[in-house]
Amino acid sequence: MTNEFRFLSRPTRRGALALGAFAGISTLLPRHTLTAQEAAELGPPSHGLSIFGDLKYPADFKHFAYVNPQAPKGGEIALQVSSTAGNQNFTTFNTLNIYSQRGDGAAGMGLIFDSLMAGSSDEEDALYGLVARSVRRSADGQVYRFQLRPEARFHDGSPITAADVAFTLETLKSTKAYATYRLILQKVTGAVALSPQEVEIRFAPDRSRELPLIVAGLPIFSKAYYANRDFDSATLESPVGSGGYRVDRIEQGRSISFRRVADYWGKDLPVSVGQSNFDTVRYEYFRDREAAFQAFTAGVYTFRDEFTSVIWSTRYDFPAIREGRVKRDTAVDGRPSGTQGWFLNTRRPQFRDPRIREAIGLAFDFEWMNQNLMYGLYKRTTSFFENSPLKAVGKPGPEEMALLEPFRGKVPDEVFGEPHVPPVSDGSGQDRGLLRQAQQMLQQAGTKRGDDGILRLADGTRLTLEFLEFDGGLTKHVEAFGKNLRLLGIGFSIRQVDPSQYQRRVQEYDYDVVSARFVMSLTPGETLNTLFGSQAARTPSSRNLSGIADPSVDAMIAKVIAAKSKADITHAARALDRLLRAGRYWVPAWYAAEHKFAYWDMYTAPGPIPPLAGGASSTALATWWYDADKAKRIGK
Predict the structure, then answer these.
(1) Reported pTM
(2) H helix or E strand, kind and range, residue 193
(3) How far is CA 515 from CA 412, 479, 502, 506, 589, in A?
């Protein structure tokens, strides 16, 4: 469960993969006719893309299996903004451009954009045609040609063309866009509009497997719209989109509503049937969690992802629950639970020694927190690929060992044995054995504790940790953590800043420790470089929060990217997991492999939430529908 931690990932549409950026883009508009040789080099047209070529749905599929194709349209769903996405925080917004680094982006803006292809929620890493009706690829995987649908339209009635796709890629590569875009898709070498309905994307030979899918999942911007506008400006003017919704009303910093486009050009496509059923989608912002919960109990918004264990365990006894007007439920989350914890900024000198980082981790008593603060609902996260087959367990097998052996003597010896697992405490909140172990590691790292009880580094500087926060949701957890840090002589403080300052400081790596969660893929690729790669560590606004800059990690990421089969991915990811865990770059937190959610009983679902769905609220938004009879019964 995502629980109290924040996301630092960009929004995607209908399950499309992670977003990125493009290098070396060119825009050539004249029509290009394939030569016989070029035609032979490209494979046959395909209605979809997948990492290993295995698509669940055939070319003539009518709709995804988990939707109701006869779902009625109408009504409203209202949601709380409850996570961050890139430059967006969940307490306010001041721009409708969520793809620029400027400002705090509004929730839901991904709803207004279409992409070349769209994903499903019951299949790993696959996309099907949306704006693009088909795609052809070269045998070497370096050239992809997307054939666009001539009926595809922006909301202003203008056609979506290959020139718009090329312009989008140019823009996302530029310094005007969020830095992650430039990092994640460096292996795109060109984008050429061959005709109004055909765009060619070229990739470097060593590109990752996921890169073509990332390209196909990008939003498409209108070139004409931005002809006289600055893309990087913070603005409350909605850009021209092409998706199933458009911006309807905004109250700056408080709420944003979207209205279904009744004549949406793509409403009858297989990837759209049975989806986008609400006439209105509304997002509500709140300054604190208690106000947000109280607003839900009063019906101010109608669907709530529950990320807070104390609320889930103790607060769902309000009148609407007892009367049956509000329902709550859980669903299995079959995705990797990923990386959830406190990331130590190794760019700061006090955190460069892994022994100091490990000692800090030993002061974290998960067992006490889980029982006393989280009602025993969670399990300890131990892996960067938690809750997935990519998690390293036991000693390396022969395939992993072959990948790791070249780094023997350059990485900790534990990499070649059992992977690091945080020790289990006695649950007292102050495990003396673990604190003694932490004290010994600090001494080995050259720290000294004076008569005043203050721990100092070898150069005499006091060892301190400042936890950077902006909403106070983890204060109790951090204070319990800090109590043990103080027992070790480590200076401890919590700095809570406003959301905009928080985001700026994170982008500039101006922090000691921050909390975050990254959702990982079952077939990871280039995105690993943005999380753990050395170049990302040096790039402002990247997602490499700990500043990991290790040649062995870079090399293993390259092995993951170059893997030719799912088995190869598994071995390389497990080897990478061992290297990262040996680095002690974070204090791993907790997870629960389920979605927790509640809603006012005015909706009908087509079935259970698919295990690979992005979340309960995103599934409800995409596939549920408003039920007027239910709404009448509960007075809504």
Answers:
(1) 0.85
(2) strand 188-195
(3) 26, 14, 12, 11, 9
Alpha helices in 381-525 (DSSP H): 398-404, 432-444, 475-487, 499-507
Sequence-separated (6 or more) residues with CB below 8 Å from residue 138: 41, 42, 43, 144
Q: Concatenate the DSSP letters of all residues of 205-270 into one string.
A: TT--TTHHHHHHTSB---TTGGGGS-TTS--SSPPP--SSEEEEEEETTTEEEEEE-TT-TTTTST
Average pLDDT, the chain: 90
How far is C-alpha 120 from the geometric centre of its chain's CA atoms? Answer: 17
Task: Taking residues 523-534, report their average pLDDT.
Answer: 92
- pLDDT for 87 equals 35
CATH T-level topology, domain 339-591: Dipeptide-binding Protein; domain 3 (3.10.105)
CATH 3.40.190.10 in the chain is located at: 36-72+87-228, 245-334+594-633
Q: Which CATH topology does 245-334+594-633 take? A: D-Maltodextrin-Binding Protein; domain 2 (3.40.190)
What are the φ/ψ torsions at residue 199 (nearest 5 degrees)? -125, 135
Residue 412 has pLDDT above 80, yes or no: yes
pLDDT for residue 86: 37
Residue 174 structure tokens: 């530029």
Six-digit token string for 379? 């399990």
Residue 88: what are its φ and ψ, rounded to 5°? -105, 135
CA 490 – CA 538 distance, rounded (Å): 28
**Number of C-alpha atoms within 13 angstroms, CB side, residue 292?**
27
CATH topology of domain 36-72+87-228: D-Maltodextrin-Binding Protein; domain 2 (3.40.190)
Give the span between the Cα atoms of 613 and 615, in whole angstroms.
6
Q: Per-residue pLDDT averaged across 199-207, rounded?
A: 93
pLDDT for the residue 266: 98
How much of the chain exceeds pLDDT 70, in percent?
A: 92
SS3 category, 386: strand
The predicted model gives 494-514 an average pLDDT of 93
Put the strands of the sheet holding 143-148 in their side by side order. 132-137, 143-148, 198-203, 188-195
User: Is there a contact between 117 and 132 (Cβ–Cβ < 8 Å)?
Assistant: yes
Residues 6+ apart with CB under 8 A from 225: 154, 156, 239, 240
Mean pLDDT (whole number) for 571-592: 97
DSSP characters for 388-401?
STTS--SS--HHHH
Q: Which residue has the higher pLDDT, 279 or 541?
A: 279
